[in-house]
Write a structure and sequence with these properties.
Blueprint: H1 9-16, H2 28-35, E1 38-44, E2 54-61, E3 66-76, E4 83-96, E5 100-105, E6 110-114, E7 116-117, E8 123-124, E9 130-136
Antiparallel strand pairs: 1-2, 1-9, 2-3, 3-4, 4-5, 5-6, 7-8, 8-9
Length: 140
């Protein structure tokens, strides 16, 4: 898989999310159990300006610590009506910490995403954007 954008989508995610203390934090082994072997959809950003695109990612968290992601970044088209979308792809290594998932992309970028365990048991970022479990991860 190659990165089609000049910035890792997961790194972009970390840059767009403000650092804030999590209200409830799952233990790292619980977070690892929730993510490992599953694919998730994660969307963030407003998509109302070119500086705040709407990003949707589909991330596969493999049992062996690898991840694969694909998705798109959409922003308003400044010259025509509608949206201009760019495909995103990335892969690398991931690891669960007490209240976050850390990653290192094969392109060398790295970052982390703070996660909050919701009362219903689901996961969300500090802004309330949910990670929606889609099913088993597709790991080669």
């Amino acid at each position: 898989m190659s990165l089609r954008s000049s910035i890792s989508p997961l790194l972009a995610l970390a840059l767009l999310l403000p650092a804030r203390e999590a209200l409830a934090t799952p233990a790292s082994n619980e977070l690892h159990r929730l993510l490992s072997g599953y694919s998730y959809q994660y969307s963030y950003g407003t998509g109302v300006s070119s500086s705040r695109p709407r990003i949707t990612l589909f991330v596969h968290y493999c049992h062996d610590g690898r991840y694969f992601s694909a998705g798109q970044s959409c922003r308003p088209n400044l010259y025509a009506s509608g949206y201009q979308c760019t495909s995103l792809q990335d892969q690398g290594q991931w690891q669960a910490a007490a209240d976050r998932v850390d990653w290192r992309s094969s392109s060398g970028n790295q970052g982390s995403l703070a996660l909050i365990r919701q009362p219903n048991g689901s996961l969300a970022d500090n802004n309330g954007n949910p990670l929606v479990r889609l099913g088993p991860a597709s790991c080669p």
